[in-house]
Amino acid sequence: MNKKILICFICMMMLFCAACGKKEGGGQLEGSLIDIMAGLYEKADLSEDFRAGMDSFETFELTKDVEVSILGTEEITYTEGVASIPMISPNAYQCVLLRVEEDSVDTVKQQLKDNADLNKWVCVSAETMLIESRGDVIFFIMGDNNTAYAMNEAFQKY
Prior knowledge:
Elements: H1 2-23, H2 33-43, H3 48-53, E1 57-61, H4 67-71, E2 80-86, E3 94-99, H5 105-115, E4 128-134, E5 137-143, H6 145-157
């Protein structure tokens, strides 16, 4: 009987510790999205070819003028948005960070998925699309598999 009580007590303590651990920080990403984007590029394990082409990239705050071309719709509500795209590139690529109300993260992720067009570029298509989130920040990328997954890994570790 004492072993059962001890095992129950240990399980309860483990659950309590796990719950407390989730509350600390909550997975929130602090800082401006432009700074976070720069950090992702710095930390990501990107190919030398990709890095060589990054001098043509522009990272900018999203505005109503470019929402549809970047997000596929103007119906997404966000409090801060940043996109990074190459100005000249033979490859299809874009990386977007959106800060949204936490209770709308799943809705916005679904809106991005429903409206994304992997073929929006002239003559090229993105191989993959990834949409992830941490706290109130959504990571949305379209591009080749290696780059997309390297950037996603950097986002998850940021």
